[in-house]
Amino acid sequence: MSGNAHAMLAAYLWDMGQFGKKSTTFMGRQGYQMKRPGQVRVRLEIDKGSLIAAHIAGTAIIVSEGTLA
Fold first, then answer.
1. pTM higher than 0.90, yes or no?
2. Tens digit of pLDDT for each residue in 18-58?
3. Helix/strand/coil for 6
4. Are 11 and 26 in contact (CB under 8 A)?
5. Chain center to CA of 61
6. Nearest alpha carbon to residue 44 among 20, 64, 68, 60
7. CA atoms of 52 and 34, how far apart (whole Å)
8. Which residues contact 52 (CB under 8 A, 6 or more apart)?
9. How far apart, in Å, are the Cα atoms of 21 and each of 10, 34, 36, 48, 50?
10. Where are the alpha helices (DSSP H) in 1-69?
11. How confident is the model at residue 62 (pLDDT cuts 50, 70, 90)?
12. CA 39 to each of CA 9, 26, 30, 42: distance values in angstroms, whole numbers, following the listed order
């Protein structure tokens, strides 16, 4: 799963009622099976009881670079 997919996961979990009224953040983990573990911080933005945005953050390093012709 890419880090960006955690925003969609957060929206799904919100729709399924998996967050409390005060708990709107979680740490997503990925890449362990590939031996390239990583983490992404996810924060839900709530307004009047409705989800209006999911924000993701984290750090990264470039391990490969290329150009398509």
1. no
2. 887 666 889 998 888 888 888 999 999 988 888 899 999 98
3. helix
4. no
5. 17
6. 20
7. 33
8. 45, 46
9. 14, 35, 33, 11, 11
10. 5-15
11. confident
12. 14, 10, 6, 10
Radius of gyration (Cα) for the chain, nearest Å?
15
Residue type, 8: M
Kindly tell me the sign of the dihedral angle through the C-alpha atoms of 61, 54, 23, 5. Answer: negative
State which amino acid sits at residue 46: I
The first and second tokens of residue 67, run together, are 């150009």
Could you tell me if 13 and 28 are in contact, meaning their C-beta atoms sit under 8 angstroms apart? no
Measured distance CA(29)–CA(1) in Å, rounded? 9
- How far apart, in Å, are the Cα atoms of 11 and each of 28, 46, 67? 13, 11, 33
